Amino acid sequence: MEVWNSTLASSFILVGILNDSGFPELLCATITVLYMLALTSNGLLLLLITMDVRLHVPMYLLLRQLSLMDLLFTTVVTPKAIMDFLLGDNTISFGSCALQMFLALTLGGAEDLLLAFMAYDRYVAICHPLNYTIFMSPKVLWLMVITSWFLASLSALVYTIYTMQYPFCKARDISHLLCEIPPLLKLACADTSTYELLVYVMGVTFLIPPLAAILVSYTLILFTVLRMPSNEGRKKALLTCSSHLAVVGMFYGAATFMYVLPNSFHNPRQDNIISVFYTIVTPALNPLIYSLRNKEVMGALRRVLGKHLFPTHPTP
Known about the structure:
Layout: E1 3-4, E2 11-14, H1 24-51, H2 58-87, E3 91-93, H3 94-127, H4 132-135, H5 138-164, E4 168-169, E5 173-174, H6 181-185, H7 193-226, H8 231-259, H9 268-291, H10 295-309
Parallel strand pairs: 2-5
Antiparallel strand pairs: 1-4, 2-3
Helix pairs in contact: 1-2, 1-9, 1-10, 2-3, 2-9, 3-5, 3-7, 3-8, 7-8, 8-9
């Protein structure tokens, strides 16, 4: 097959799930609603945690980072997919494709690491409450945040540059919602077997150790919670942990399918469904899972709304 000049002036065609659906208008409307929900819920959670000083504790400051990552992640993908469908133009330039891949890998990798740090935070809070301020000091907290962003962006930069240096064939159609490594490698006019192995190693390295750390943390938490004498304490701890585990299950399930399972398990339709799940559905549901069942967050919402809707005026 003829090789095309993969330069910044070149372009791909994103043939995403909207173009391959039996009911594209309904699916587009659903994705639009989910995107607006993601914007609203994550934006509100960011605002609440920033404005309410009572939420300026490690658990909620890490949650603020998660909301920021989810908000950016879905914005990298969803608006373009919607506009492409509405305008009937699915092209994406070579440079934009590379940028989208870099941002998606950065935000996905950062969230992967952050979820492990959030599990550690809950482990320290429940299993070692007397040492919590030491193990989760502001210095440790910001080290976690910086580590998540730095390692994820460094890895994303390396893999984006290496992926985009391949020569691509004349068939420019990417059967995917966004520019990601697996669908792009299918267009490469070169032997990518060694690189696909490296991508698999990347997936295992970035997903399995954090997931193992999360499972160990919550196993230890479970043992500690079951020994608590207070039913109220057990209920509160289990409620918090169940919310975290729900988020972990959604994120790691989709990411493992995309980057850890062998190519024989993949087909374009399944990959598109999974990509919609972790780029659109999960960012919309995460803040709802964390906030609707959380008394502190709901209390902050009432305080902030009460402060702005019913401001108190000093008496003369």
